[in-house]
Structure formats: structure tokens, C-alpha cells
Amino acid sequence: MQANTLVVNCGSSSIKLALFDHQEQKISSALVERLNTADAFARIEGIDAPLAIEPEARYEQALKVVLSAFEELGLLDSAPSAIGHRVVHGGETFREAVLIDDDVIEGIQACSGLAPLHNPVNLAGIEAMRKLYPRVPQVAVFDTAFHQTLPPKAYMYAVPESYYRDWAVRRYGFHGTSHYFMSRETARRLDRTPATTSLISAHLGNGCSITAIRDGLSVDTSMGLTPLEGLVMGTRSGDVDPGLFDYLDGKGITAAALNDVLNQQSGLLGLSGQTNDMRTLCDLADHGHEPSRLAIDVFCFRLARYIGAMMASLNRIDALVFTGGIGENSSRIREQTCNHLGLLGFELEADLNSAHGGFSDGIISSPESRFPVMVIPTNEELVIASEAKRLAETPTPSERP
Asked: Which reaction does it catalyse (predicted)?
């Protein structure tokens, strides 16, 4: 079976690719790791042997290797019908997915100051794929787009208004494709429409965010101007007192150095002093490693606080949903978090939680719980593939009768 849609997600040292058929069923995927180093390699799902990538290979070279392998395996014809790209930051320019042209590329570049670690590498993948497939429609799907429905009271910072007017300083939110998927999939599992479904969506992985979704629309979220704000994450601190910058400047730590620490050396890694992997942390905590136990405690407590805060933006809760690598697979984190929420009426069923919702349609809460609690695997790649296919098949104004 050959692919119809290709999804490309470029990071600073990795590339994730996924192939989908005409029915939007995933066919295969691939991962390039350690890009730009002498140890670069790629793996295709279901193939044991890694693919060799030239040392110091850039995006176009690495993509050629993987795409050639897809063709040799009969998974991809000479060209897909559509290509979807994940782009982290769309600012206020992009409220939805768009067909990529030169103007869109300029718009993404203009947003790069808001996501300097992400947008430039997203653009590198776009430019490489436009070279490789110049006639294939390519679509940008933005992490921030789903959160463009935030009301001003949720997205404005309490700083001089000119900061927003002149420099676009506001809260944008991220993981939008995942939270969008949760809004649709939760509604389906509850036999409701998205427009009549309100939920709290907790996306927990190396990056973590939580979103209040009211009648299918994002109305509050934990990440802000950048993906640093909000929950404790793998290597990111989440919320800190802004006064920390001035205080540590007096200790000889510059703002730039502290920004790097808060993004790369904090969160679970910083608290534990060992790792940002939740599975390893739980094992260390079980063997008496106190810093790992503390890292888990802080993670769960901060998450519970944000769950309570998100309730302020909703008029009802149809479900609290856990997703992402940690959210889907760590019964311990879900239990410990919900234990903080007993006053609000969240109660889990131990067997369902241990099975990650596998005995039901994702529900892990007890019958006595005031609100349903669910585990639903996210599928950001499907959202990107679906948007790419939809826009590629939509006639442009010049093509309409």
C-alpha cells in the first residue's frame, strides 16, 4: 500500500516522518536522530537495521535517505499527494493550517523570534521538502493555532499594553494539535459533538501543557509566549518568579545563561539531578532516591494545581483527559495527581488506572467520581495528515468554477 500523505516534523537534531494512505490510516513512520553529528542515523518502523546517514548531514540529505528507503519498500510512490509540516509558532498571523507559499514562509520567519529554537528548523524541513517535491502541495500546521480562540483575559499578560501592541507579547499556548485531537476524540468516545463537549486536556511528555476546552474551543492553557511557561516538564522549569532573573544576575548568571538553564537543565532533570525520564525517576524513587521522589511530587502537585485552575474557564467538565507519553503510560502519575483533587471530586478506579483505561473506552475514574477521568492516546500526526490532505484537495480561488 502506497502513501497519499507525508507528515514531516523537524527538530533541532531529529526528524520524524509518517506516511498515511488515502483513508488516513498510518502506513509507516521513520525517525532520524543525532542529525548534524557524525553519529546520525535513521530507523524505519518495522525495520531492524538502521539507515546510514552521512556525517554532519543536513535536513535535505537525511530526508533523501529516508524517502528513498520508503520508495524501495514500496511505501511511497515517486511523490505523495500532500505533505504536512509541524510548525511550532504561528504567532497571531496563522489561526489555522495553511498551504505553504513564499508569503507563508515569510510569515513563519517573522514568528521565529517567538520560537528561535523551533521555527528555523521547521523552516529547514519545509525548504528541503519544497526542493525535493516542488509540485506537491505542502501545508503548515501550527502548534499555536488551536489556541487562537483564547479570550483576551486568558492571553494577555499584566504588563504595559504597548508590549503587546508593539512586540506581540502575549500568551500563545502550544501542543495545539494534540489538544485539538483530544477535543474531537473525547467527544467521539462520549458520544457527543465537539461543540457540546468541555474538558481539561493534560498533555504530559517531555514537554507538558494543559488546556481548558469549552464547547470544542481552547479557552485557557498553561504554556505562554514560549513553551517554557506552565507545568514542570522534562528539562523545562515551568513557572518561576520573574524576579529570579534579577536575583541571579547579582550572582553572576546572565539572563541568557539562566534562560538556557530553565529550558535545558531544569524540570524533572534539575530537581532529580539524574534524568528527565519519568520511568527512570519512578524506579529511582522506589529504590529510595529522595531527589527523584521530590521531582515526582513537585510534578504531580503543580499539575493538580493547574487542573484546578483550568476549572475557572469552564461551565462544566465532561472529562479530565490524560495524554502524551507520561499521561498515557504512567498510572502512578495519574493517581498521585488525582489524589490532590479529592476535594473537587476526582476519583480513580485502581484497576482501570493500572490498565491505562484499557478495560473501557479510556475511562479510569470510579463510578463515584464527580467527573469522568480518561486516558486517550494522542495522534498529532493524524491531525497534520488530515489537514494536509484537506487543504491539498481544496480548490484554490483560481480553480473554482
From this structure: acetate + ATP = acetyl phosphate + ADP
CA angle 89, 145, 156 (to 5 degrees): 80
Q: How far apart are CA 163 and CA 187, in angstroms?
A: 38
Does the model's pTM come out above 0.85?
yes
Would you name the residues annotated as active-site residues? 143
Grid coordinates belonging to 151:
479570550
**Binding site for Mg(2+), residues?**
9, 380
**Residue type at 68 in one-letter notation:** S
Q: Which residues pair with 29 in a beta bridge?
A: 18
* Interatomic CA distance for residues 243 and 245, integer angstroms: 5
Please give the annotated binding residues, written as ranges.
Answer: 9, 16, 86, 203-207, 277-279, 325-329, 380
* Residue 166 vs residues 125, 158, 169, 170, 225: alpha-carbon distances, Å: 30, 15, 8, 11, 14
Condensed to tens digits (0 to 9), the pLDDT of residues 203-255 reads 999 999 999 999 999 999 999 999 999 999 999 999 999 999 999 999 999 99
